[in-house]
Amino acid sequence: MMRTRPLKVALLGCGVVGSEVARIMTTHADDLAARIGAPVELAGVAVRRPDKVREGIPGELITTDATALVKRGDIDVIVEVIGGVEPARTLITTAFEHGASVVSANKALLAQDGATLYEAADQHGRDLYFEAAVAGAIPLIRPLRESLAGDKINRVMGIVNGTTNFILDAMDTSGAGYSEALDEATALGYAEADPTADVEGFDAAAKAAILAGIAFHTRVRLDDVYREGMTEVTAADFASAKRMGCTIKLLAICERAADGESVTARVHPAMIPLSHPLASVREAYNAVFVEAEAAGRLMFYGPGAGGSPTASAVLGDLVAVCRNRLNEATGPGESAYTQLPVSPMGEVVTRYHISLDVADKPGVLAQVATVFAEHGVSIDTVRQQGKDGEASLVVVTHRAPDAALSGTVEALRKLDTVRGVASIMRVEGE
Amino acid sequence: MMRTRPLKVALLGCGVVGSEVARIMTTHADDLAARIGAPVELAGVAVRRPDKVREGIPGELITTDATALVKRGDIDVIVEVIGGVEPARTLITTAFEHGASVVSANKALLAQDGATLYEAADQHGRDLYFEAAVAGAIPLIRPLRESLAGDKINRVMGIVNGTTNFILDAMDTSGAGYSEALDEATALGYAEADPTADVEGFDAAAKAAILAGIAFHTRVRLDDVYREGMTEVTAADFASAKRMGCTIKLLAICERAADGESVTARVHPAMIPLSHPLASVREAYNAVFVEAEAAGRLMFYGPGAGGSPTASAVLGDLVAVCRNRLNEATGPGESAYTQLPVSPMGEVVTRYHISLDVADKPGVLAQVATVFAEHGVSIDTVRQQGKDGEASLVVVTHRAPDAALSGTVEALRKLDTVRGVASIMRVEGE
Ligand SMILES: NC(=O)c1ccc[n+]([C@@H]2O[C@H](COP(=O)([O-])OP(=O)(O)OC[C@H]3O[C@@H](n4cnc5c(N)ncnc54)[C@H](OP(=O)(O)O)[C@@H]3O)[C@@H](O)[C@H]2O)c1
Ligand SMILES: NC(=O)c1ccc[n+]([C@@H]2O[C@H](COP(=O)([O-])OP(=O)(O)OC[C@H]3O[C@@H](n4cnc5c(N)ncnc54)[C@H](OP(=O)(O)O)[C@@H]3O)[C@@H](O)[C@H]2O)c1
Q1: Contact predicate A269/A248, CB 8 Å
Q2: What is the pLDDT of residues A136-152, one digit of tens each?
Q3: Active-site residue (options: A8, A71, A152, A207)
Q4: Looking at this predicted complex, what is its ipTM?
Q5: CATH number of the domain enclosing A13
Q6: Which residues of A26-37 are buried (b: 16+ CB within 10 A; e: fewer)?
Q7: How far, in Å, from the CA of A83 to the mean position of ligand 1?
Q8: What is this structure's pTM?
Q9: Do B291 and B190 share a structural domain?
Q10: Residue B408 and residue A200: Cα distance in Å, rounded?
Q11: How many domains does chain B have?
Q12: Sign of the four-CA dihedral A314, A315, A320, A323
């Protein structure tokens, strides 16, 4: 029962991801046709540099006029793999206006202004799918949106940036410092020449916004996500983590508050116990841990980036969107009915590991403990180490609101006996 | 834009899983309605014992006449959580004939006769969803059927039975023997009074048949799955595994042959390296490893059974099927277009760990090595241990077809100097 008119697909962008999408569409055309129920045809490819050699792509499909391509009107599905906010946003909304459905890998745009895209899709009765935008090849958006649609998700916590995981894993394994590990990641192609988006947590924050929105059926924007990069994690932090039976990961954490009335989303480095499944995620792999009321604790693991893994996710979406076109149906759209407020970082409740440089004299511990107590932060363990008049105090707290911890640290800095706050790290996953 | 007429759902079975489905449908009715776009109403519950107290379920919904319930004609979705082949099969096909879509958790029926169900669904333009049939709460069927629909899956390898994983984990951790660990599992409620279906691998084999069918787009029946239970795994096997840096798991393995022209599906205990992600799956958790051409290596992890996790999967399906009803559409049906043959176990290629009890005299190793060579099975490592005229030989092979290994073992048994074959175990995941 195969339809004969092929579905027309236009690619916007033909770089790392787009070229792999085009390649697989060609080499696996028969499988795709069988799974969709109709052949798919690559109808146009928009790029910036028309003269670049693009293996396997007929020259007549190449155009630099992406706008004309999305306005052609005969395109069934647009695959947007340009990246960035503009012109991607305008191209996508224009595509909807001209009757196409859209598959995108664009986390930056979705985190910044997903609502505009969802609304345009809804208004024109078309699909917007974006499995590839979070955690590359790992099926995550679909499980959250569909498999867990009958459940209540309370927490999503994951390693969603491969570059930073590679760097932290290298630091953990070799004892290297941050810049040495970054150099290694750059040399091996795991980090870009300008690694800011990765190491400062911008990339992970975009993914956290997308995940929180889907998990909690509410709108979460990039600005709602607390973000701390991992450039200040030191070899000493790893040594402290080891002493606690932990390692350090850059985590994206989306949580429903205990009272269920608000949510939070944040990205920062954190200590997690070695026994936690996320602790053993090595190299550039990604993994996302999901806690749901009925399902319990789930984990999804796999390659978070790379041309071919990301293309796998794009093509899975392409099959679904094409099937929907044939059925004249659409998949699930935006689900934001809960309209839960996003609380600021100060309201996040977690544990902390704080290293202080203090004067090596009697009474310091008592002073420090008093400051914690005054701010309502309860201490779990303290370790003192001293030599030559210099000493360090390592304090691990019980669960406390982030605002209380910040207040504590501010007050600690004012103590004469505290020479410096060497590091503050959250402790998660216990 | 909420429809006012509720969608009517009938439950067939209200045991461990069914009672949780009913509970969540009641407690989370508003969320389900928002996500579906229409309220869902529990319209009838078929059970065997009508007089049993069933908390939260109005008595007038209870019936012992499941057939009449599926024939009522006003039911939108039937949730089948009775289990077993009959009457479940007839009830499901009758439900399709009367216009209902079906959500089922019934691995036994799907593995035995999935084709009949798919055909009935297709003929009547209705949905058949069964996420809960494999690995309980873990989203797996949907990722395989949909997220990876644009990729080529080459292998699915997983721990899909929680009872046996609990027993093997206990043996590994405590050094206990099989029956001691089974007793512990029974006492803790992880094993049923009659554990045959679990420990002999029947449950895992049903899941392997379902996974292989979906992964390879071909029909794989229960009879096509090679099956070996784990009742003969000993503490000595675990000791050998440890010496190799391995542990032992009961694995379901579905593979595409190297030439791509056939597939295999099998269930048996196997050694896997401690570094493999499946090695650290503890207690009754399940996890499934998927290797796809473009996506690479993915893993899905979570609770494989239990009333509430399984209900989570059922309800995710219920939301999807209800949405499809509202859209007058259907989700993906059976995909068996590749029609690949299922090869017998003899054609599976893997590695082996063989322990032999041999006479402690010169020349034995040479004799044994000759037998391996004659059968074309290449040896990787040999370890000899001897005392008091008794000796043991542990041979680890390179990859070889299962038939060649069987021939080798048969010939070894005929050697005068071989007193017995203490154990043969496959080595996977390298
Ligand atoms: N790479 C990954 O591993 C990965 C993983 C997950 C998600 N993603 C997402 O996938 C998207 C694409 O990433 P990528 O790595 O493939 O990027 P890329 O290699 O930089 O490719 C971008 C493509 O877009 C084209 N392009 C740029 N501006 C354009 C314009 N104004 N009009 C038409 N075409 C234009 C470029 O043309 P030229 O070829 O002529 O330069 C290039 O083909 C991004 O949203 C990214 O976040 C990537
Ligand atoms: N339990 C799990 O963790 C789990 C996990 C994954 C999948 N599953 C699958 O889910 C299904 C249900 O499992 P379960 O553990 O919930 O089983 P269960 O506790 O034994 O419940 C079976 C239910 O079916 C009812 N029933 C039996 N025969 C019937 C008949 N002829 N007509 C009407 N009702 C009938 C029983 O009625 P009474 O209540 O009157 O006895 C009972 O309510 C099975 O296919 C199983 O393989 C279970």
Answers
A1: yes
A2: 999 999 999 999 999 99
A3: A207
A4: 0.94
A5: 3.40.50.720
A6: eebeebbbbbbb
A7: 5
A8: 0.96
A9: yes
A10: 58
A11: 3
A12: positive
From the centroid of its chain, how far is CA A67? 29
Positions in chain A whose pLDDT score sits under 50? none
Task: Quote the domain boundaries for residue A26.
Answer: 7-136+308-326
Q: Are residues B120 and B16 both part of a single domain?
A: yes
Residues B116, B218, single domain; the answer is: no
Structural domain ending residue among the three candidates B272, B291, B326: B326
Residues A126 and A177 both lie in one domain: no
**∠A65-A67-A73 over CA atoms, to 5°?**
115
pLDDT of residue B102: 98
Q: Are B204 and B150 in the same domain?
A: yes
Q: Which residues of chain B have pLDDT under 70?
A: 1-4
pLDDT, residue A3, reads: 60
Looking from the CA of residue A49, the nearest atom of ligand 1 is: 40
Question: Which residue ranges have their beta carbon within 6 Å of ligand 2?
Answer: B 12-18, 46-49, 52, 66, 81-83, 87, 105-107, 132, 136, 305-306, 310
Q: What is the DSSP string of A272-334?
A: EETTSGGGG--TTEEEEEEEETTTEEEEEEEE---HHHHHHHHHHHHHHHHHHHHTT------
Judge whether B334 lies within some domain: no
With an 8 Å Cβ cutoff, are A294 and B308 in contact?
Answer: yes
DSSP class of B377: P
Task: Identify the pLDDT of residue A385.
Answer: 82
B26 and B95, same domain (yes or no): yes
pLDDT in tens, B51-90: 999 999 999 999 999 999 999 999 999 999 999 999 999 9
